[in-house]
User: Which sequence fits this backbone?
């Protein structure tokens, strides 16, 4: 099962966006503080607690400059998944973003996680779309 976000539009160039979002130290800017606590990060990894769910950890497993960031769970996360952040510059200061998440869950869990994960990837696109990249 793959869950895709809507395609977002960021009024900035792909290089600046990629450089910022490919570093987990900057990710706390996109995480809702009311749902996540204990956020810790390095450039390539992060860990946090999600209210009602527990501890989770992420690691960047692949990068393609200005185009793709592929993220996977680490061994502390109970659910296995992959998450892709794709960027495509269509004009000088017009970059499109799409986030895809692929959880490894059984058939029963698919129905349970589909809606919250779709809301999560769309919310993440909203946060990245409205972030003031010109100030970084």
Assistant:
């Amino acid at each position: 099962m793959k869950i895709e976000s809507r395609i977002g539009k960021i009024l900035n160039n792909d290089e600046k966006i990629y450089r910022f979002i490919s570093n987990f130290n900057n990710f706390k800017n996109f995480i809702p503080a009311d749902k996540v606590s204990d956020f810790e990060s390095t450039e390539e990894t992060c860990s946090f607690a999600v209210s009602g769910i527990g501890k989770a950890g992420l690691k960047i497993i692949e990068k393609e400059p200005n185009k793709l960031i592929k993220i996977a769970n680490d061994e502390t996360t109970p659910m296995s998944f992959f998450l892709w952040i794709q960027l495509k510059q269509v004009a000088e200061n017009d970059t499109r973003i799409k986030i895809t998440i692929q959880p490894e869950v059984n058939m029963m869990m698919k129905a349970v996680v589909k809606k919250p994960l779709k809301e999560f990837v769309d919310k993440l696109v909203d946060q990245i779309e409205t972030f003031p990249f010109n100030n970084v």
About this structure: Strands lie at 3-4, 8-10, 36-41, 45-50, 54-64, 68-73, 80-91, 94-104. The radius of gyration is 15 Å.
